[in-house]
DNA sequence: GTCCATGCAAATGCTTTGCAGCCAG
DNA sequence: CTGGCTGCAAAGCATTTGCATGGAC
């Protein structure tokens, strides 16, 4: 494995990720890092995020949208609220047993999985039901042949 | 829902997606479409992919990398080989029961999930074991505090 | 002192958009 | 006819990269 140096920039980026539960984007990490190191550049943030992912020190989420990162390495899943866009952590629902089952069925050797749930979070459900109104039936799509 | 017309371009893009099991990128769809409609533009491909996703006629994969699309709407998961990059379909491992369990535990209302497995496919496993050689112990990372 | 990492800015590459003409309904 | 669609090209934007300098070890 290539040799790396332990720079201030790198350390700060890791700190931000570990202290945040927000699954921040590169841009957000950049903004936060600038509060400590006003001269850090976006390029450096990207370079380090990439390196930290390769080293397995952080994870990259690829559910909704572009590059969001996660400093929480404990096995866990994610839930994305389709109304407000908030991403929450979920305790892992399953793991080894699931992997074994799928591997046995398919012949793939499974190292890990990524599971993302989508739906509505409690607070968006509440808001929605308070203004529950008009309901149109969904029409048949024209492309179904 | 907005009104849409049924154009040749749109139909061809849908056909390509439905006939392919390769989870093609926009670029690949564009290349294929040009064999039938040499003048179709990349912009049109993107516009239609977006529209078809909104209409629920295709799915967008967001596992590894950028925009890959899937014309197979049946509930299924994906497996990505980390060696060769190939993406395979897997029969869905679970669904309603899992959603109910997670919903009960968290209070989220779950509409669907996305599950991606990562590891090595049978053919890459075979290749790897035939040249199994040097094994270096992984060194401790310098960033673990 | 070495050579990896940084800052800065230019470059890339995927995706989106504005616009005038086109064509499905 | 009407207004959604298309091709084309320019624009957007997130991410990457080249280069000279700086700093970790």
Report on the structure:
The structure is a homodimer of 145-residue chains. Chain A is of the alpha+beta class. Chain A has two domains: 1-73, Orthogonal Bundle (Arc Repressor Mutant, subunit A); 74-145, Ferric-uptake regulator, C-terminal dimerisarion domain (Dna Ligase, domain 1, 2-Layer Sandwich). The first copy, chain A, is 39% helix and 20% strand. Chain A contains five helices and five strands. The first copy, chain A, is flat. The model of chain A is unreliable at 133-145 (pLDDT under 50). At the A-B interface, helix 1, strand 4, helix 4 and strand 5 of A face helix 1, strand 4, helix 4 and strand 5 of B. Chain A binds a DNA duplex (25 and 25 nucleotides) through helix 3.
Give a short summary of the structure.
The structure is a homodimer of 145-residue chains. By secondary structure, chain A is of the alpha+beta class.
Task: Sum up the structure in keywords.
homodimer; 145 residues; alpha+beta; Arc Repressor Mutant, subunit A; Dna Ligase, domain 1; three-stranded mixed beta sheet; two-stranded antiparallel ribbon; 39% helix; disordered C terminus; DNA-binding
Q: In terms of topology, how is this protein built?
A:
Two copies of one chain form a homodimer.
Chain A lengths: L7 H12 L6 H11 L5 H13 L4 E3 L6 E3 L5 E6 L5 E5 L4 H11 L2 E12 L1 H9 L15
Parallel strand pairs in A: 3-5
Antiparallel strand pairs in A: 1-2, 3-4
Helix pairs in contact in A: 1-2, 1-3, 2-3
The structure holds a DNA duplex (25 and 25 nucleotides).
